[in-house]
């Protein structure tokens, strides 16, 4: 069978007597190799059951020796078989070509769908990011406008805290500012924990955690059902059963350090991830107004002239 594989054969004649008991196996092998070819067996007709088995195996005609020797009667039968085989082969080739084209089109369609899906997802993400930036910019402008008229640090801290609470809901809020190289509590608003009762807690936050929050650089958010990273696991132990939302404002005044905001409340009222946008809006507005007020206050303090050496000697 090796020498016929890979060839285009449309008509095959087999002599039944020469094949003997292997006839049906040969027919099946040829039919498997040449799906469209006409396969004719020449030989004495066996019983009806055997002939049926041969046709089921793949032959297209059985010609008796007497008919094989009659050229006039044989030619139409052979011509018909060849024409049918050629037509079947052409149809099979067309089907194979169409099948390959369909596979390529299916692959290209899937690739295009993936690209379009990725482009749509990127477009949706870009649109969502644009809306987020627009919302953050609007909140930041609103907060800056609210704080613009204040000229006292206490007022800036108080109004910023009130704005935060208006956005995130009732919460205990602690604001820490750097003072003489150490973080100290600059403002506190209570929800369910009075300032006096929170004294030890705020001192611990100022001494042990403000610097870590600054170094972290991102919003720290966790609660009973949303545990923190290992870096802030100890802080969760300091505030058991509490939902916590803390962040460092941008450092716009290196001489005075970074302002830290720590919000905490009952763990049954967790802080939404959406509040990160509030931190991104309020943090820069709060920091810029703190820097502005500090500049104003530093300019307002009198600068006494230094005495010259001549005047001191008189």
Q: What is the topological layout?
A:
Layout: E1 11-15, H1 16-19, H2 23-33, E2 38-42, H3 48-57, E3 61-63, H4 65-68, H5 71-147, H6 153-168, E4 172-179, E5 182-189, H7 199-216, E6 220-222, H8 233-238, E7 242-248, E8 260-266, H9 275-300, H10 309-313
Parallel strand pairs: 1-2, 2-3
Antiparallel strand pairs: 4-5, 4-8, 6-7, 7-8
Helix pairs in contact: 5-9, 6-9
Provide a descriptive summary of the structure in words.
- The chain is an alpha/beta fold.
- It folds into 2 domains: 2-102, 3-Layer(aba) Sandwich (Rossmann fold); 148-298, GAF domain (Beta-Lactamase).
- Helix content is 56%, strand content 15%.
- The protein has a 5-stranded antiparallel sheet.
- Helix 5 (71-147) packs parallel to helix 9.
- The chain is rod-shaped, with a radius of gyration of 45 Å.
- The relative contact order is 0.08.
- Mean pLDDT is 82; it is low at 300-305 and 308-314.
In short:
This protein is α/β, with parallel strands linked by helices and 314 residues long. The protein has ten helices and eight strands.
Features of the shown structure:
314 residues; alpha/beta; Rossmann fold; Beta-Lactamase; 2 domains; five-stranded antiparallel β-sheet; three-stranded parallel β-sheet; 56% helix
User: What would you report as the Rg, rounded to the nearest angstrom?
Assistant: 45 Å
Helix-residue proportion: 55-70%
Give the overall pLDDT as a whole number: 82
Question: If you consult CATH, what is the topology of the largest domain?
Answer: Beta-Lactamase
Structural class by secondary-structure content: alpha/beta
Order of helices and strands: EHHEHEHHHEEHEHEEHH
Q: Distance between the terminal alpha carbons, to the nearest Å?
A: 128 Å
So how many helices?
A: 10
Secondary structure: number of strands: 8
Overall body shape: rod-shaped
CATH architecture label of the largest domain: 2-Layer Sandwich
Largest sheet, in brief, is: 5 strands, antiparallel
Q: So what's the CATH class of the largest domain?
A: Alpha Beta
Strand order of the largest sheet: 5-4-8-7-6
* Low-confidence runs: 300-305, 308-314
How big a fraction of the residues is strand? 5-15%
CATH superfamily of the largest domain: GAF domain
Query: Into how many domains do the coordinates divide?
Result: 2
């Amino acid at each position: 069978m090796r020498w016929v594989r890979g060839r285009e054969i449309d008509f095959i004649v087999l002599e039944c007597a020469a094949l003997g008991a292997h006839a049906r196996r040969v027919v099946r092998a040829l039919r498997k190799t040449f799906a469209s070819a006409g396969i004719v067996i020449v030989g004495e007709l066996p019983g009806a059951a055997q002939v049926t088995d041969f046709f089921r195996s793949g032959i297209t005609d059985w010609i008796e020796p007497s008919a094989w020797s009659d050229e006039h009667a044989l030619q139409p039968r052979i011509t018909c078989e060849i024409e049918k085989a050629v037509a079947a082969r052409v149809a099979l080739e067309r089907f194979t070509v169409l099948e390959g084209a369909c596979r390529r089109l299916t692959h290209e369609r899937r690739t295009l769908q993936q690209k379009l899906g990725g482009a749509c997802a990127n477009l949706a993400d870009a649109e969502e990011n644009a809306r987020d930036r627009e919302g953050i910019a609007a909140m930041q402008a609103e907060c800056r406008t609210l704080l613009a008229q204040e000229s006292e640090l206490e007022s800036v801290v108080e109004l910023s805290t009130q704005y935060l609470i208006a956005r995130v809901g009732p919460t205990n809020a602690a604001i820490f500012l750097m003072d003489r190289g150490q973080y100290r509590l600059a403002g506190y608003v209570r929800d369910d924990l009075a300032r006096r009762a929170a004294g030890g807690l705020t001192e611990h936050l100022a001494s042990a955690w403000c610097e870590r929050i600054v170094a972290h650089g991102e919003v720290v958010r966790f609660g009973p059902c949303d545990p923190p990273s290992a870096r802030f696991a100890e802080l969760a132990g300091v505030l058991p059963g509490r939902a916590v939302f803390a962040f460092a404002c941008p450092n716009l005044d290196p001489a005075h350090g970074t302002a830290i905001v720590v919000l905490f409340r009952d763990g049954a009222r967790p802080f939404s991830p959406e509040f990160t946008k509030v931190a991104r809006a309020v943090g820069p507005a709060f920091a810029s107004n703190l820097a502005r007020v500090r500049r104003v206050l530093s300019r307002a303090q009198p600068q006494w002239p230094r005495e010259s050496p001549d005047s001191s000697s008189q």
